[in-house]
Amino acid sequence: MFGLTRAEERTLRKLNTPTKIQDFLDALPINHEKLGRTYLSPRRVLRERKAHCLEGALLAATALWLQGQKPLLMDFRTTPEDEDHVVALYRVNGYWGAVSKTNHAILRFRDPVYRTLRELALSYFNEYYMFETGKKTLRAYSAPFDLAKRGAAWITAEHNLDEIAEAVDWSRHYSLVPSKNARHLRPADPMEIRAGKLVEWEKRDPRT
Question: What digits encode the pLDDT tens for the residues 157-197?
Fold first, then answer.
């Protein structure tokens, strides 16, 4: 299915709940992109055994698609000094949750308890900050990006998926912070910053 080998499909079909998908992604080393920027397909993630946030979200979306859910992504847009983040969306009994690949103690998995996508996006707001200053940087979230509309060739692609990364970035986004309230945001405190700096995979690890 989707052009996957039997072994690839067997691996992904075992990930038959969002929790199993998240556990699988957590066990994968983070992709530190030591040789340059990458946007690995799910096939390449399975082969190279590492992923960053978009790559993990693409694999999660593929596993969810095999379960009969739509392969949906959500992009988080930040202020210029920070980096965007991408998660895979899922629904259980009408409530939204998210699968997230990250190297830090923040911006992680979300249980299916959110009635709306805005609620889900806001659950990441206080976690999204600069480690140097504590400035909170999350500003917008995207409408669900339906990967099914792009066919399925991306799942097994051997090239970098720059076209998907760009399409997600240019998709419709919705503001989270009222413009008049941006100056009232309290920076993350030293305890939050210290916790946020925890990582699962060090850059010096040869597996990353």
Answer: 999 999 999 999 999 999 999 999 999 999 999 999 999 99
| DSSP conformation class of 32 | -
Residue 119 pairs with which residues in a beta bridge?
Answer: none
Q: Which has the closest alpha carbon to 56: 31, 90, 19?
A: 31
Element (H, E) at 138: strand 138-142
Alpha carbon distance 61, 54 (integer Å): 10
Neighbouring CB atoms inside 10 A of 44's CB total 22
φ and ψ at residue 172, rounded to 5 degrees = -65, 135
**How many angstroms separate the CA atoms of 189 and 201, rounded?**
24
For the segment 49-100, what is each residue's pLDDT rounded down to a tens digit? 999 999 999 999 999 999 999 999 999 999 999 999 999 999 999 999 999 9
